[in-house]
Amino acid sequence: MPLKPLDPVIQENLCPGWDITAIESGRSANGLKTNLMLSNGVPQHYRMLDVGDSDAQEALAKIYATKTGLDVEAVLYILLQFIVQVESATRTRDTKRSPASKDQEYQQDGDGLWLVKHSAQGSERFQLTNFGANIIADIIEDDGTPETKRFFELEAHYGGTYASVRVPAKDFHTMSWVPETVGAKARVFPGAFMKEHAAAAIQDLSDNIECRHTFVHTGCSLGSSTGNRGEGHL
Length: 234
Fold this sequence. Notes:
This protein is of the alpha+beta class.
């Protein structure tokens, strides 16, 4: 996917007189990329950063440290927190762009998740599930290796049963987490692409998703977060 402008741009003060600015960002099969600018009143350095590449993060932190006179570790810490802001801003920007096609939308009520199809003849509702769910957090776990792990934290409910579950992002669309989370009666209704629609409905209807980037490779866990649901924990 080509990079698209962030509006507004994301800016963080690195130290007195120096700022990092994320100008644009975009997602592809290889992850999130962003164009960053270091400035001290005038632009001093541009770099397109592969957000999930720890080697690229460290290399950029060394460049910024050389230009600003800061300690590399201090710069890297600020840079990693800044990346979380860019991830959140990218998600917000992309969510505002048509979450569903013009002739269909997703809805959620006390009976579950629904697909609503619109046509010239009117609207028709198809029940996808008999439970409801929302993603409340998008968690990236970094252990210092090139491969980061991603999890979704969800709140789900069926009848009077409410529960939270942490699901590996790669397993979210399988919906296999549903019975264990909210019980044997909670289900996706049978039919073609019902699981895919149910997963898409949860994603489209989840607002204010908190982004957390947790670092576990130093022998302890350091968390960062953005979003309206709460702060990360050190």
